Queue: 2 jobs
Job 1
Amino acid sequence: MGKMKYYIPSGSWPLKIDLYHKLMKKCEFIEGCQNSADILILPGGSDIGIRKERDDFEFNVYAKWVKAEKPVLGICRGMQIMLTTENALIIQHIPEKTTEIMHTTVSGDWKGQSSWHTTSSGLLTNSRHHQGFFAQDIPDSWAILDKTTDKIVEAIQRKNCFAVQWHPEHDEMKNTDAQDWWITNVKSFIL
């Protein structure tokens, strides 16, 4: 079998797709199209509820891939799509629920330089989101692989699905232990 192919839905919404292509090359995958891909990657981006066209498309494509029992990877918003589809209770604005860790960017506006935190497994990860999930609100069908000290879920897994809340694709994560952890888990989970 040749290299496995991945599909990233990007539609008409803006997405810095090159960051994902670079990361997937590190994982030894090649780009494909929806009909021929082996793996679906749900990328980061705007909050659920801002771009209905994107939300509907990604909810639908995720449901199709799960039904077909094909592997799905999620990053930030992608994890949120996966868990929201599975009826997990999403936190709309983390700072209203916990202020122990800064989950936004340094400027607090979710754009620009990430803030950083160390997860329960010791990974230093970037953070630039204000939506997320508390561990107790995740369906039992999911294994929580990592979370923050304020119990915000950072990594999940179940059969054919793996996702992280942080951004392993960003240049600031290049050659970090966290990015290496992500790549290792993707390879062991998918291949």
Job 2
Amino acid sequence: MNLYTYEDACVPGVSNGDAKQPSNDAARVDLLGEHPQDDYSRYSDAADAAVRALADPSRIVHISYGDFPASDYLRDVTIQRGLSAYDTAKSIGADTALPADLVQGLWSMIVPIAEQLREFGVFGPRVEVPEDAPLQDRLLGLTGRQP
């Protein structure tokens, strides 16, 4: 959860166009403190507010791996978070069924760039899944996960 909090802590600065963002070493700092739920909510709420205030999604923002439109940055954060929900649930033995609208949204975002993300090492090799499988299973296979 601290990693998610760190990511949320970066969103306002990135969205505002700040050129200097915290290093990855900053992710090792405990941002959750004595009241982890409250602290997580505070960072999450600030990230949400920054995204809602972003008037121009095509605005170039600065992230550790280059300069990109804010919409690309937010897309990448959304993909990472959405897939992490599945990965986390699987790792702790919880129900891995994702909400249908999340699966559809991730599918729509990932399909056009899946091979590019695979080339960058974001996804492992595609796992073959029958075309008539549920969309979540096809999404998992597309992203290199075994459904």
